[in-house]
Design a protein that fits this description.
single chain; alpha/beta; four-stranded antiparallel beta sheet; about 15% strand
């Protein structure tokens, strides 16, 4: 039985696919005006674990992830300017060039983290007609009104508004400072924004209401329902999306189509850095590329993320990342000497499946993995089960199981010379030889009087 925590009902629920044997999954994707940081990547790792778990249970998954390349303002609540314009001004490039470059960077990070490709990556700019059509449906159903700067959704017209975050509109606003402008209610949000008359925008389109561009939320409603119908099974995103983006997305779909957008809404918690907020201003916002430049394996970050439940805060520090990398190296070293996969360890597979099917309990799943690794089962049996577990964990263990490291003769010679230098207590020569070994792509680890060789 697959059971997931549903933000909409605030309960853990059994997954009952709308179409037998199939699951429609929509995950909020990146705004491609800048690099995705490791906090963003935690969200995509969570969605990947979910998708892999569904597939491990024999379900066919159709996964859609949007690419936001227009409409996301610097303030999520219709404030500020389009983030793509920020990127254009920062780099002196066109919006297309900005989107193309950072989309490619995002895809590269997905590959580094071994995150499986979604079936579709629809772009907001490629679905303007669909977004206009949904705004027209909302207008026809009486959910919109016009101001001098755009077409807005009237949240007072939807009695269920606020259901996702568990607060009615009035409660959501208690103590909040919101710029009203011409909005009727502070929770109302833009569906279509008019282009400023004094500034020429590269990204603007004709519409029944005038030249302009879509609001941020409408793209996900339009594209998810185009490719997955409505309702579909599961919608994912970060916890920061609940109160604004997903609440508004759900409202748009309900207002336009009269149905829930998705049956289950799942959200991952924040990534903190050294137990504090992650932000550019604090200088603690890191990308996967920066971790690689510091010498870390991207899969060490994946391993670190697996060690915390997706609904729990995950604290990032380089000490924690170092620990995750060492644990992953240890696992790889252990399994390299194992025999070829055979048979399997049924009891461990059963327990692993029970853990992962219970709202993606990856910490418990990892504990079961280590217990199996240390068990008395034959290495062939453990190898088969480990590779089966890795269908969900995604640590690329198939590249290590039963595959000892082949050490070139030159590296072996240098290691032998270094051991002699250490016996002679010639530490300067020892360090020089270690550096030469690392230059050839290997690292020496000294433990219990012996030197172990590992590939960098």
């Amino acid at each position: 039985m697959l059971r997931f925590y549903n933000t909409l009902t605030r309960n853990k629920e059994e997954l009952r696919p709308i179409h037998e044997g199939k699951v429609g999954l929509y995950s909020c994707g990146p705004t491609v005006y800048w690099f995705a940081h490791i906090g963003n990547m935690r969200s995509f790792l969570f969605a990947d674990i979910l998708r892999r778990t569904l597939e491990l249970n024999g379900l066919e998954v159709k996964m859609v992830m949007n690419i936001t390349d227009v409409g996301h303002l610097t303030g999520d609540a219709d404030e500020g300017e389009d983030k793509m314009l920020v990127g254009m001004r920062r780099e002196g490039k066109t919006a297309f060039e900005i989107a193309e470059f950072y989309t490619a960077a995002f895809m590269r990070d997905l590959e580094r983290l071994n995150i499986k490709q979604a079936n579709l990556y629809p772009k907001a700019t490629a679905h303007i007609p669909e977004q206009i059509a949904m705004v027209e449906a909302l207008e026809k159903n009486g959910f919109t009104y016009r101001t001098s700067d755009g077409i807005y959704f009237d949240t007072s017209r939807l009695s269920t508004y606020g259901a996702l975050c568990g607060q009615k509109a009035a409660e959501k606003l208690a103590g909040a400072r919101v710029e009203m402008g011409e909005k009727r209610h502070a929770t109302d949000f833009a569906l279509w924004k008019f282009s400023p008359t004094d500034v020429q925008r590269e990204m603007e389109w004709d519409s029944p209401w005038g030249k302009g561009f879509p609001g941020w939320h409408i793209e996900c409603s339009a594209m998810s329902t185009k490719y997955l119908d409505a309702p579909f099974d599961i919608h994912t995103g970060g916890i920061d999306h609940i109160a604004v983006h997903h609440e508004n997305e759900l409202a748009q779909t309900k207002g336009a189509l009269g149905v829930l957008e998705a049956n289950i809404w799942m959200h991952n918690e924040f990534l903190t850095v050294n137990d504090g907020k992650m932000s550019k201003s604090l200088g603690n916002l890191y990308t996967i590329e920066e971790l690689v430049e510091k010498g870390y394996d991207p899969l060490a970050f994946r391993f670190l993320a697996l060690g915390a439940h997706y609904r729990s805060k995950l604290n990032f520090s380089f000490e924690a990342l170092e620990g995750a990398q060492n644990a992953l190296r240890k696992l790889r070293d252990i399994v390299r000497s194992w025999e070829a996969p055979a048979v399997g360890c049924a009891q461990f597979e059963s327990r692993f499946l029970e853990a992962i099917n219970d709202d993606l309990n990856t910490p418990q799943a990892l504990a079961i993995l280590w217990e199996m690794v240390d068990s008395e089962y034959s290495t062939g049996a453990k190898a088969r089960t480990l590779l089966w577990m890795d269908h969900v964990l995604g640590l690329r263990l198939d590249e290590c199981v039963g595959k000892p490291i082949e050490v070139p003769d030159e590296v072996a010679r240098l290691v032998k010379e270094r051991e002699e230098a250490r016996r002679q207590k010639d530490w300067t020569l020892s360090d020089e030889l270690r550096a030469r070994v690392e230059a050839l792509g290997f690292i020496i680890e000294d433990a219990n009087g012996h030197s172990n060789i590992r590939k960098l």
